[in-house]
Amino acid sequence: MDFSLNGKVALVTGGARGLGLAFCTALAEAGAQVVMADVLEAEGRAATDALTAQGHAVTFQGLDVSSESDWADAVDAIKARYGQLDVLLNNAGVGGAGTFLSTTLEDWNRTIAINLTGVFLGCRTCVPLMAESGGGSVINISSIFGQVSDWLVCAYSASKGGVRSLTKSVALMCGEMQNNVRVNSVHPGFVHTPMVEQGVAETPKEIGDPYMARTVGQVPLGRIGNPDDLAGAIVFLASDASRYMTGSEVTVDGGFTAR
Description:
Elements: E1 9-13, H1 18-29, E2 33-38, H2 41-53, E3 58-62, H3 68-82, E4 87-90, H4 105-132, E5 136-141, H5 154-177, E6 181-188, H6 194-202, H7 205-214, H8 231-238, E7 249-252
Parallel strand pairs: 1-2, 1-4, 2-3, 4-5, 5-6, 6-7
């Protein structure tokens, strides 16, 4: 069974920190040439330099996933530099708390633009190059709140539910095209990341404390996850070991959705 990514080129959005940085590291350690893409240029270039210093093949690409022209520029750069793309990891996303009553239209549109439209643009822009490269693996990061929900994460849950369904639609179309591109979604549970920590910090204590008790406090494994806890699933889906998987959901949540 081959988990090696030697000879593969992987594009990771939102790669400068949190889950994205853990995914870039894991893919590089498995042998991939990694393109770390992010709007956080200073953090991204610093992370790229650090991984390069460790002997990994990592480059940085500025990318706003909600921008169609940014996607086109990124794919053109990858094609010019590597001539191929084998793995697309749509990881970039934003969080934020809010009910359907308290969420502003501005916040709703921003969340959908980054979390859902960004994945749509990534698939539409990158799959043709992946098909030209002989096929590959698209990995879309959804969330357990794309499978279940909570009243305090209205826009986030809607966007991640969209990623879940979009993944299946793209997988079916790739199957129809017989282009050898597989498309799967990953559904993380509660994980220590800057995005999660920022969301908690911005939530009023009288709302945040009960929320933490009824959600994070119910994880069967008894702890919040770390970014590295998801790395194995990502490498598996990126590799040929998962060659018969497409349109599937991989849940990594410490057992939360088993309830």
